[in-house]
Amino acid sequence: MMKDDLFAAVDAYIEHLFVPDDPVLRAVLQSITESEMPPIQVSPAQGQFLYLLAKLCGARRILELGTLAGYSAIWLARALPADGRLISLEADAKYAEVARRNLERAGLAHLVEIVIGPALEMLPALQARGERPFDMVFIDADKENYVAYLEWTLRLARPGSLIVADNVIREGRVLAPESGDSFAQSVRAFNAALAAERRVEAIILQQVGVKGHDGLALAWVKRE
Ligand code: SAH
Ligand code: DHB
Ligand code: MG
Predict the structure, then answer these.
(1) CATH of the domain at 156
(2) What phi and psi values does residue 8 have, to the nearest 5 degrees?
(3) Nearest-CA residue for atom 3 of ligand 2
(4) 96, 99, 193, 211: most buried, per Cβ within 10 A?
């Protein structure tokens, strides 16, 4: 459809205006191609948006679910103060190794811990080792577990924390209860859980651009 080309062109226009060319991020994209990883990282404009959100909420401690090659991790870590911390969970040890090298090259490795393992096993481990609350959580791992990730996020966050979740619209397939697309079914359940969750106030931003038609959920953990 012609509209898709227009949306991608406008995304490129926004990127050209606000996202300066960056050798570090270019190397990350190259590592994704070379390692034959799926190119499903956030777009450059979404990266800048995540960076701004982290700055806006003054995040000192960020939790990310789904590292891939560390592209979004670099954006988030760049928003941290010198003594900040990003913990990023990744199930695939090979992806985590690529990400570790990319964070090293970005000069951010000292701020970032990549935890290897299925997030549903590593989240309890984070709680068990007494991690202090996270100021911001970016949910971007397997969509099947998004509902469970919301519950864990609320355990590891604090009143006033920001929660961001990627891929919650899936080309509008979330509208159909029986879409036959398990990915869309899972985020549909997540969106319903988020809307029903009394501990947060939330909204979904519908998005178009280089990654097609999708959405980003934003939620603020209420202060009692
Ligand atoms: N946030 C990244 C993209 C993440 S893609 C970026 O924007 O740059 C989703 C990632 O989640 C993949 O790397 C995948 O390996 C990982 N993943 C899938 N299932 C997972 C699980 N159960 N626990 C942790 N990570 C998982
Ligand atoms: C896809 C996109 C994503 O942003 C993601 O986190 C996982 C999968 C996709 O387009 O398939
Ligand atoms: Mg995503």
Answers:
(1) 3.40.50.150
(2) -65, -40
(3) 40
(4) 99
